[in-house]
Write a structure and sequence with these properties.
Layout: H1 5-8, E1 11-16, E2 20-25, E3 34-39, E4 51-57, E5 60-66, E6 72-77, E7 89-94, E8 100-105, H2 111-116, H3 121-124, E9 131-133, E10 140-146, H4 151-157, H5 163-168, E11 172-178, E12 184-191
Antiparallel strand pairs: 1-2, 2-10, 3-7, 3-9, 4-5, 5-6, 7-8, 10-11, 11-12
The structure holds zinc ion.
Length: 193
């Protein structure tokens, strides 16, 4: 089990098993204390009563409300309302040199992201994502990555995808921090498949 490319240069391997790898983040400057930021949940659209139907018009989906006679009186464009998952990004800032590293983005990393290809519009619009600092103090950061599928099986299923892509298609990730007094803090977990 190997580490996806985007993490290779900023980590060291702590533990490996057949299906998992645990790494510790280490900045290029040598620093290993980080401030951790998470993307803020986007607002869920609040839909008033009466919208009971979805129609397709010119290739776009709309949620519609009809009046007593069946005439559409209001419509809301669905856009990415049905996106499978909310965008989740975890980033860290090196305490020593200040450089920022994105350590997980559920539209780019993990099985669902690779196979469903969120890339394109959705995945590239990082500027719309707001972040908040999770913990006031910096900490050491660890990632445990699970890969349930063997590369041979993966290749069989998706012929056109190479080994690098395979590494990005991990099935689960746990991110945790260790601050002073060796206290473990769960930062983030996601089943990505
Ligand atoms: Zn650094």
């Amino acid at each position: 089990m190997l580490i996806p490319e985007y993490l290779q240069e900023i980590s060291e391997t702590i533990k490996k098993t057949k299906n998992t790898v645990t790494i510790k983040l280490k900045c290029n400057c040598g620093g290993s204390d980080f401030k951790v930021y998470k993307s803020v949940e986007q607002d869920i659209v609040d839909i008033e009563h009466g919208f009971n139907e979805i129609i397709r018009d010119n290739g776009e989906l709309y949620l519609v409300k009809r009046n007593f006679f069946g005439k559409i009186i209001k419509r809301i464009k669905c856009d990415n309302m049905f996106c499978k998952k909310q965008r989740k990004i975890i980033k860290v800032n090196c305490e020593k040199c200040g450089i920022e590293h994105i350590i997980f983005d559920n539209y780019k990393h993990g099985y669902d992201a690779i196979i469903n290809k969120y890339e394109g519009n959705a995945a590239n619009s990082n500027d719309l994502v707001e972040f908040k600092l999770c913990y006031s103090h910096p900490m050491e950061v660890f990632l445990k990555i699970y890969q349930d599928i063997l590369y041979d099986d993966f290749k069989e299923e998706f012929h056109d995808l190479d080994f690098n892509t395979y590494l990005y298609s991990f099935s689960n990730i746990d991110i945790y921090g260790v601050a002073s007094k060796n206290k473990k803090i769960n930062i983030y977990s996601e089943e990505t498949a």
